[in-house]
């Protein structure tokens, strides 16, 4: 899998509308980005924060299925994912987050869409993620990506609270996949 090349047109236009013309670059993460990704996850206050080691390792081993957003040389957002071993046509998004000062500019949606574009070259057509039912912002972001791509988003329960050893909320599985075309009669 080669390093993703991603269009940043949507993110850049959102920045221009805010009165500040600052380019946002989407690129594969590097090991040196792991610490910043961990901080963004920690500061989000909604993500389950993994160890800092996990983020550094993710940047090394899953860089081809992950992206960071960079503004003026600083990582301001990330999406980390992997191709499902039993379904290589499906990329699973583990986490996506944007620095608090960069939210509302389309960066999260651009990261998700950019990841879908990047893995499409290797045959992936479907994206999966899990979202807790009490997280409407994430649900809305993934729904917006599906609509812009002309794709279908479905939801079903995946992990109930009993699947977790702590007080973790339930997680629903969301899938974004191409719409099934009805055969012409």
TrEMBL record:
InterPro entries recorded: Acyl_CoA_acyltransferase, Ectoine_EctA, GNAT_dom
Keyword 4Fe-4S among UniProt keywords: no
Pathway, per record: Amine and polyamine biosynthesis; ectoine biosynthesis; L-ectoine from L-aspartate 4-semialdehyde: step 2/3
Residue ranges with Basic and acidic residues bias: 9-19
Keywords, in A-Z order: Acyltransferase, Transferase
Domain of life: Bacteria
Domain (N-acetyltransferase): residue spans on this chain: 24-171
Family note: Belongs to the acetyltransferase family. EctA subfamily.
PANTHER family cross-referenced by the UniProt entry: L-2,4-DIAMINOBUTYRIC ACID ACETYLTRANSFERASE, N-ACETYLTRANSFERASE
Protein's recorded name: L-2,4-diaminobutyric acid acetyltransferase
Originating organism: Nocardia bovistercoris
Gene that this polypeptide is encoded by: ectA
């Amino acid at each position: 899998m080669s390093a993703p090349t991603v269009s940043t047109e949507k993110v850049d236009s959102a920045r221009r509308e805010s009165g500040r013309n600052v380019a946002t670059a989407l690129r594969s993460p590097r090991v040196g980005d792991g610490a910043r990704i961990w901080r963004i996850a920690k500061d989000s206050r909604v993500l389950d924060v993994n160890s800092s080691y996990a983020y550094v390792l993710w940047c090394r081993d899953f860089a081809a299925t992950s992206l960071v957003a960079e503004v003026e040389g600083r990582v301001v957002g990330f999406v980390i994912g992997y191709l499902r071993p039993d379904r290589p046509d499906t990329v699973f998004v583990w986490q996506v987050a944007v620095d608090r000062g960069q939210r509302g500019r389309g960066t999260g949606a651009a990261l998700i869409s950019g990841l879908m574009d990047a893995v499409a070259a290797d045959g992936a057509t479907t994206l999966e993620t899990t979202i807790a039912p009490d997280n409407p912002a994430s649900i809305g972001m993934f729904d917006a990506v599906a609509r812009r791509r002309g794709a279908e988003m479905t939801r079903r329960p995946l992990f109930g609270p009993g699947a977790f050893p702590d007080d973790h909320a339930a997680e629903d599985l969301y899938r974004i996949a191409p719409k099934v075309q009805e055969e012409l009669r």
